[in-house]
């Protein structure tokens, strides 16, 4: 009987079909060859490696679960594996793909008109058009139902006023999916760069997700034509449905960050000789690796079952909440543990764990904080009573 792999202890790969395995290995190879050599310097320089965007598009990773419109039409498990491999490189790359596909292409596909789909989706699949998603506001992101950004009807146009904060891809986006309050409740708008009164400003001095662009968006009486309103996006449920798509990808992505950190620490511990033997011969080090492996394995199985439910059309948002909460917490704890095993070297950007650990401080906050997901699961279990 073959021994279990340290990186796939329960042979999760055997539960994948041939196409899923091939997609994972293609994206994994691309991350090894094209991302690993540049990502530490990009993080250090607080720079998103924009030169990789055309390659990401050529690999067919943008909006990859959409059928038609020049998109790849993959299943959700494949999309999850893509997120896992990208985040093994860096959370910033997975964020870029999540925002473009799950937060911008998804709402255009799910809530847009046929004209909007034809106009934007092929261009977004090829990265000719980059999107961002504006929901969070300066006064508090966890409670988007109280947003202050608002749009008022003016003839056949809308006049948009307000501001969004902490917006991934904002500074490079050609279009922003913006959620605003109207007399009719929350609606979604496609705001294009160049529209008068729409400006962005990048958020600098971040110590997390440094290889990713984060920006503020400002709307000063922006005139948005009716044809840029998403006709089927009505109420808070619409943006929350987009979040469900992105949170799903994050639940897989966090496994990649954990595996990257754990592998780096394991390679180090096998050759670091202290008190006469390698670190991997020490009882407490073995216990710590066993614990990391246990948590990664649990997260892999959780993500795969979530993906199978999603592919069968049976996935519930609170199941996504549990997976996002469990897997990001796991990724953060594993990368911190890996950082510690590297000793002083662990604080250097030369090793990936501190970069993953710092990135995951954003990942545990965005797309619903850990507390928000605990409360969403708690509400589901306790008869729907809202404890927010
Ligand atoms: P609530 O009454 O619970 O819900 C309103 C309506 O929405 C439905 N719903 C959902 N639908 C789909 N997916 C979900 N996850 C949903 N959660 C709720 C719900 O059934 C209801 O429908 P209906 O038909 O009854 O109207 O609303 P609430 O105001 O009580 O809020 C609930 C709460 C706190 C869970 C929600 O506000 C929330 O999720 N807050 C967190 C906000 C958040 O996650 N923001 C993320 C911003 S985007 C981002 O961070 C991008 S980072 C990207 C990257 O770089 O990767
Ligand atoms: P707050 O909502 O003010 O929360 C503060 C604290 O209060 C948190 O610890 C929270 O868990 C806790 N809390 C909240 N409610 C409760 C409660 N009921 N009971 C107990 N505790 C509670 N947003 C976008 O719209 N688009 C993007 O592309 C995007 N990208 C991001 C990129 C980065 C790098 C980061 C860091 C954030 C991004 N965000 C984006 C914003 C993100 O979604 C918000 O930061 C997040 O939703 C939390 O909102 P907040 O920061 O305002 O914290």
TrEMBL record:
Top-rank lineage group of the source organism: Bacteria
Keyword Zinc assigned: no
Pfam families, sorted: Acyl-CoA_dh_1 (PF00441), Acyl-CoA_dh_M (PF02770), Acyl-CoA_dh_N (PF02771)
Gene3D superfamilies reported for this sequence: Acyl-CoA dehydrogenase/oxidase, N-terminal domain, Butyryl-CoA Dehydrogenase, subunit A, domain 2, Butyryl-CoA Dehydrogenase, subunit A, domain 3
Occurrences of domain Acyl-CoA oxidase/dehydrogenase middle (ranges): 132-222
Keyword set includes Flavoprotein: yes
Alphabetized UniProt keyword annotations: FAD, Flavoprotein, Oxidoreductase, Transit peptide
Cofactor(s) the protein needs: FAD
Gene Ontology molecular function: fatty-acyl-CoA binding; flavin adenine dinucleotide binding; glutaryl-CoA dehydrogenase activity
Domain Acyl-CoA dehydrogenase/oxidase N-terminal: 18-128
Alphabetical GO biological process terms: fatty acid beta-oxidation using acyl-CoA dehydrogenase; fatty-acyl-CoA biosynthetic process
Residue span(s) of domain Acyl-CoA dehydrogenase/oxidase C-terminal: 234-381
Family named by the database record: Belongs to the acyl-CoA dehydrogenase family.
Protein name (record): Acyl-CoA dehydrogenase family protein
Provenance organism: Eiseniibacteriota bacterium
